[in-house]
Predict the structure.
Amino acid sequence: MTEEHEEKVGLENQEDFGVVTQEELKEIQEQYRKQKLKDTLLGPVISTCVHVFLILLASLFKGETKAGSANVEVTQKIEEVIEEPPPPPPPPPPPPEPELKTESETINPEVTETMDLTEDIATEIDDTDEPPAAEIMDDVELMSDVKPSTSPLTSAKMFSSRSPNAKANAIRKHGGSALAQKSLANALDWLAKNQNPDGTWGAANKESMTALAVLTFLAHGDTPKSKKYGVHVRKGIMKLAEWGKQSKFPIGILNEKPKKGSAYTHGLVAYAIAEAYAMTGNYVLLEPLNRTIQYICDKQNPDGGFYYAYENNGHSNLSTASYNFQALKAAKAAGCDLQDLPGAIDKAITHLKKHATATGFYYRTDSKNIRAPAMRGVGVLCLQLLGEPNCKEAKRVGDYAAKHDIQHLEWRDNGEIALYFWYYTTQVLFQRGGSGWNAWNKKFQKILIENQNPEGYWLSPTPLELNHCGNQLIDNQVYSTAKCALMLTVYYRYLPSSAIKESGGDKPSKKQKEAATGEEEIDIFI
């Protein structure tokens, strides 16, 4: 084919398909680029939109769940509590039952006309903290459901009724009046105000007075953590611990009567230290506890008694011995594990049983045929606390006290050591229960309410008793106030050691009755 022919054919083909101009070619290329770009971007854009949509959807779904979440509500509640002022304290326990009002009106009809006995008993115990012992028996609040142990020495449970709720129930159950507990509160206020700056109480006999005051606050359930009296209790306990660590024993050598009263005071301080340790569990007190109790064990007479200045002369003075016996009891309850302690307690029990008569106990074993009425309560209470409330000696003398000793319950100078006498008898009859306790309870509360000084303290009506407190007014006031206040804590101070049924007991002979009225000057600090 010639060149001319090929060119002709090419022109013919162009006519068949049409000729593309330069502008059309550019337009075709531009459209191609746009299509290519569109195809390239469409996938990611769609994917991005889908993801955004899913995220928004998830966010909306999560927000709804969060609104209904318990966690969100808790967070908001916490913030509100922080921003708003704290809520008011819970209301106190319910007021005393109607039976309490009726019984208390019988106790003191004159006073009840001016004060409503439905006043909440628990208002006087709101500021106390529960001691560790109370945690052991929280269910003791309903004391009518608790069977007391025949031996309160088994553990610190004997202190468990001092917790706030248990106290309120115990007061109602055992016949305490709101008025009497108000008197107790006033007494505690007075003791707090009259504490010395160094933590002691009193002036001439600070060791004994401080121990009595600390025992009073502890009996009320107060510890160093208590809101109202915590500072006072802490300072008092620390002073006791200081004395318990001193190098020279016994504690409490009186200046005016060197050494004679030390056995009484040492036992009283050891008693307070033991209860403080039982209620606080503070190991700072363990060394003072062990040292003071070991000294008592070492100085106990072979027959189980104690004499003035811990003299080992074969005789015993029960007034001196009593606080040493009670110190041994409290140490055992506090968990003291001294090797000599169980034997000392056994010797004390044997001693008390040996020297019990039909109508009482001795004052001094070297004073023949003289039985001071006050010693009945001393001996029986020691037996009760040492774990022998049902022994024949405790029951026999306790029966006599329940029938006869209410005649001594008069606020007048009758030549006796009144408050000391009443202090022990109140505890003995409470532990026994029954009609003897009911009669005593009605009368002693009335007497204490009527004879309390408006400032909150008491002062014994018998000069004989006051003469043994140091012959200074403040000592007499602290002693008298502590004894009366401790009587008003009887409803919850110690769980009843037993429920002894009343019995006729042995009727004392005429000679025994006459011996029971014999008097001897009783030194309560010597």
Summary: The chain has one domain: 111-516. Residues 303 and 498 are 27 Å apart (CA to CA).
